Amino acid sequence: EVQLVESGGGLVKPGGSLRLSCAASGFTFSNAWMSWVRQAPGKGLEWVGRVKSKTDGGTTDYAAPVKGRFTISRDDSKNTLYLQMNSLETEDTAVYYCTTYYYGSGTRRWFDPWGQGTLVTVSS
Amino acid sequence: DIQMTQSPSSLSASVGDRVTITCRASQSISSYLNWYQQKPGIAPKLLIYGASSLQSGVPSRFSGSGSGTDFTLTISSLQPEDFATYYCQQSYSTPPYTFGQGTKLEIK
Predict the structure, then answer these.
(1) Chain B: nearest CA to A3, how far in angstroms?
(2) What is the model's pLDDT at position A88?
(3) Rg (chain B; Cα; Å)
């Protein structure tokens, strides 16, 4: 069974840091492009960033609001994805989802599966 | 960046109704358009990819159409389990992979 399980969320003060983890199982993690997507309370989905597989270069891309503050990394030996969040702002309060970005032929590109999400609250 | 705009933002309908949700891209995205369903407290679920291809396991009452900048998601006969929020998402070219703002489908 394909599974993504996030952890590491919690309450942090503005300006603080937090690292989220996403443990993957049931598929070949090292071949997967992985993303983080967040959802502020009562709001819509916002793509945060992506890391390609190492065979495809292992490069990262980020959404403008988090670029320079957030870092996505992966440890293929542990089948784990990370999101290091620094200089956190109240606007970063959200449920953070880990998801696989399937990059297939033609228009076959989508986010699936998704983890259950982990809540990050930035508040003083 | 490509902006995605959904309409309406919310919609009330009854079981058995036919419902259509629209998504418009700020520039042509060919058929690189996906639809997701999200229920409260649960992660999104992929329904349709490539504008019109049904994801495995998704009921056939869901369908998608469109290309270029204008897309629609249609539910042919609403079931009780379909009341949720629906998001479109473009996967054209390079990131950011933007989502629409969502359409909340409520019971009338």
Answers:
(1) 12
(2) 98
(3) 13
List all residues 6 or more positions away from B52 whose beta carbon is below 8 Å from its beta carbon: B31, B63, B64, B65, B66
Q: Tell whether A67 is within 8 A of chain B (Cβ).
A: no
The amino acid occupying position B26 is: S
What distance lies between CA B9 and its chain's CA centroid? Answer: 12
Nearest to A61 among B89, B95, B100 (CB): B95
Cβ contact A15:A91 at 8 Å: no
* DSSP conformational letter for A87: S
pLDDT in tens, A55-107: 999 999 999 999 999 999 999 999 999 999 999 999 999 999 999 999 888 88
User: Quick check: B36 and A111 CB within 8 A?
Assistant: yes
In chain A, residues with a C-beta closer than 8 Å to the C-beta of B43 are 97, 99, 114-117
**Rounded distance between C-alpha atoms, residue B92 and residue A101, angstroms:** 13
CA angle A101, A107, A113 (to 5 degrees): 25
Q: What is the mean pLDDT of chain B?
A: 96
| Cβ contact A111–B101 (<8 Å) | no
pLDDT digits (tens, 9 = 90+) for A17-42: 999 999 999 999 999 999 999 999 99
